[in-house]
Amino acid sequence: MAQVKNNYQFEDMLQKHNLKKTAPRLRVLSMMYSKNTATSQPDLESVMNDIDRVTLYRILNTFEEKGIIHKVFDLNGTANYAVCHSDCKENHHHDEHLHFNCTACKNVYCINELNMPRLTLPAGFEPQAFTLYASGLCPKCSKKGAARVN
Amino acid sequence: MAQVKNNYQFEDMLQKHNLKKTAPRLRVLSMMYSKNTATSQPDLESVMNDIDRVTLYRILNTFEEKGIIHKVFDLNGTANYAVCHSDCKENHHHDEHLHFNCTACKNVYCINELNMPRLTLPAGFEPQAFTLYASGLCPKCSKKGAARVN
DNA sequence: AATACAAATGCAACATTATTGTATTTAGAA
DNA sequence: TTCTAAATACAATAATGTTGCATTTGTATT
Ligand SMILES: [Mn+2]
Ligand SMILES: [Mn+2]
Ligand SMILES: [Zn+2]
Ligand SMILES: [Zn+2]
C-alpha cells in the first residue's frame, strides 16, 4: 500500500519545490512515504527525537504549503500528516477525500478511492469544501476482533 | 434561531441530569443556548474569565458526558462546543450532522436538517460513525460579500 | 433551621502542543 | 573556495489540557 520511493526521489521532490536537500527533511519524507497511514505529530516527534521540535513544525508547515503533505485532525483533535496523492500545488490542495480513523489502532487512513458526496445545504450557505471522516475498525483491526488492539 | 430557554429551564436540565445547580454551570448553559453557533473553548474562556479554567473544562466534560453538548473540532483543530438537539443520552450521542465552518467569521454551525450520506468503504473497513464538515461562507457572510468579515 | 456529606469549585503544579525570535550552521550558487 | 540565503538549533513564551488536593457549596436528612 505504502508508496515506495527511494532517497533519490525524495531529493528530487525537494528540488522541484525549491527546497534544500537536508537530512531532517529527507527523513521526514522517508518516514511519511513508508506508511499507508497518516503520522501523528506526537509519533513524528518521538521517532525523530534527535531533530529539534521547532524544525519539525517548520518542515511540516513548509511541506504543507508546498502541497507535499496535508494535515488531518483526528477525532481527538490531534494533528496528523499524510502525503498528498492528488495533484496538490503550492497553497492549493485537492485532498477532499475521506479520512478513516480506526478506534482500535488509532491510525488515520486516507481513502482516496471514494469521491465525496456533493450535498445541498440550507439556503444561504455557500460551501467551498467538504471534509468527511469515518471512524470504526480498519481492515487489520476488524480481522483481529474488536477487543484486541492492532 | 437560537434556542430560547430561561434560567428555570436550565435549572431543570441540571436537575434532570443529577447535576447540582451552580452559577458557573448555569452561565455556561445560558451562553451556549443563546447562540446558534458552536462556542470555541478560547471564546468561552475569555467570556467567562472569572470562572476557573479547570472548572470550565470540567463543566464541558460533564455536559458532554451527559449528552447536553457535543464537541466539534473546527478545521483549525480548535475545540468547539454546541448544544445537542438530537436526543442524546448519557454517554450516547446522536450528533451525526454536518458542521459548517465559515471561513470568514470562523463560526461553526450545526446543520441538523441534513442527513448523513451512508457511504460504502473499501473492503475491510468497518465504519461505525461518520462526521462531515463543510467550509465556505455562512449566510451572513455570503450576503456581505466574500471580502468582509461578519 | 441546623447538620452532614458528596459534589463542585478554586488553586497550584504540571504536561503537551505550538509559536516567535535569534544565533549558528549549511546547502548550493557563484 | 567563497559567499549568502535558507535551514536548523536553541531559548523563551503562549496556548491548551490534565491531575491532585484543599476549600466551598448544594442539597438531602434530621
Ligand atoms: Mn488524506
Ligand atoms: Mn453539532
Ligand atoms: Zn486499526
Ligand atoms: Zn460567517
UniProtKB/TrEMBL annotation, chains A, B:
Pfam family, one: FUR
Family designation: Belongs to the Fur family.
InterPro entries recorded: FUR (IPR002481), Fur_C (IPR043135), WH-like_DNA-bd_sf (IPR036388), WH_DNA-bd_sf (IPR036390)
Keyword Repeat: no
Source taxon at top rank: Bacteria
Annotated binding of Zn(2+), by residue: 102, 105, 138, 141
Family annotation (PANTHER family): HYDROGEN PEROXIDE SENSITIVE REPRESSOR, ZINC UPTAKE REGULATION PROTEIN
Cofactor(s) this protein requires: Zn(2+); Mn(2+); Fe(2+)
Keywords noted in UniProt: DNA-binding, Iron, Metal-binding, Repressor, Transcription, Transcription regulation, Zinc
Residues that hold Fe cation according to the record: 93, 95
Name of the protein described by the UniProt record: Transcriptional repressor
GO molecular function annotation: DNA-binding transcription factor activity; transcription cis-regulatory region binding; zinc ion binding
A single GO BP: regulation of secondary metabolite biosynthetic process
Co-factor binding details: Binds 1 zinc ion per subunit. Binds 1 Mn(2+) or Fe(2+) ion per subunit.
